[in-house]
Amino acid sequence: MAYDADVIVIGAGLAGLVATAELVDAGRSVIVLDQEPERSIGGQAHWSFGGLFLVDSPEQRRLRVKDSHDLALQDWLGTAGFDRPEDHWPRKWAEAYVDFAAGEKRAWLHGQGIRFFPVVGWAERGGYDATGHGNSVPRFHITWGTGPGVVAPFERRVRAGVAKGLVSFRFRHRVTGLGSTAGAVDTVTGETLEPSDAPRGTASSRTVTGAFALRAQAVIVTSGGIGGNHDLVRAQWPERLGTPPRKLLSGVPAHVDGLMLGIAEAAGAHHINGDRMWHYTEGIENWNPIWARHGIRILPGPSSLWLDARGTRLPVPLFPGFDTLGTLEHITRSGHEHTWFVLDRRIIGKEFALSGSEQNPDLTGKSVRDVLVRARADVPGPVKAFMDKGADFVVERDLGALVRGMNALTEEPLIDEAELRREITARDREITNPFTKDLQVTAVRGARKFLGDRLIRTAPPHRILDPEAGPLIAVRLNILTRKSLGGLETDLSSRVLTAAGDPLPGVYAAGEAAGFGGGGVHGYRSLEGTFLGGCIFSGRTAGRAAARALG
After folding, report:
1. Which 3 state secondary structure label does DSSP give 365?
2. Dihedral over alpha carbons 419, 420, 425, 428 (to 10 degrees)
3. pTM of this prediction?
């Protein structure tokens, strides 16, 4: 039986596009399958903020940030906490990825046409010791053009492959099985779905109109993770992260359903570290949703007071932007599923950014003028829209009214005004001189020693109850699903492995479906800016390896 293409790529997200672009460069023919309409090309990456993890970059050096390969590897391994026998390949991938991020990554991306915003962000600061979780220095490089700016160069390369007759897109093709000949996977079967004009990110029809069977010498699985499938998220939720929340917001569209992982397992692939996952604790309901239960993540600076559902400050070092999963575990064991930021207009104007390409039209649109307008604004427009329309925001001039508004948003009135006033007043007393025992105040002052934070991300220390800094603001925070950290186990050539540790002939995997490399390159935690980069690195590896292996 003849082959329909050299390679079939399952999933037209970032990893799939990168793998396909590399196959095109090698002169290989490719069929790209995706269950969604063509307008959803690029997958989750399109909706992202476009953050990329780079080490010792020119952007860092201009801001007087001293970074190195050794420091980055120390941070990665301390964050990942690899401790399982199946972490052999994930650790190998981690070492290779840090080599990439500290080596050719920036120059290679620059050659693709990707450019970076000059101010580097400092995500996941940790707050523990030097060998523990977190980034020791700022490493979060925002792509000029955000997520669409990351996707665009690889989509262009693939479209060029279409023009050459090397690439065929088959949208509305949902894979249901993988078949083998003489022990090697060479057949992809599935259902064709009716055409859909659903806008990007919205739910598309699942009406089946037919079936398909396609053959190729190799198959690359780049189908993404499980973040849109809340039932699967809860089923894989680990005991160490407490009780799965009843209410979850979705940081990804519903078609991110994880079903292809089970199909690959049925064909012999080894799915590891399914209990490792990455969900955010600063989720807010989108006042203008695109998909069901659409949540947006606040990217906070370090100054907001983070309170539990009863108004008590979270323990050290669970400050905004320091330890995502540490905070998640604390929340899920507290007996309540929401927390609060309490802050003022001065802090929200300087420190709040919202994740997502659609929430950052200035960066996404590559408008220098709009970036300058945003920098000069009292409160950026997208943030102001949430203040005015968001279901999770309370804005008031005095604390009593703020507490009444907070209690109106919850099933029980859990916040006591006197206790909250005591908490904020105690913190405010620590601001009046340069000495303090409040470690969050110390962290704020330390952040402002970094030029990038001082310029655009950290407000000068001040009293929250100072009327001139008002009005006061409270934000109810929800758990927001996002990424799978586990996935299909792969070797350093992106070949999918069986439970016995042998390559599954004909099958490769990349992106979130492969745990961004190896079946879990992040281990238990992420350093941020590493998801898009993991898709790029593993997609490039899979495409090149498959091209070399073909007859």
Report:
1. coil
2. 150
3. 0.97
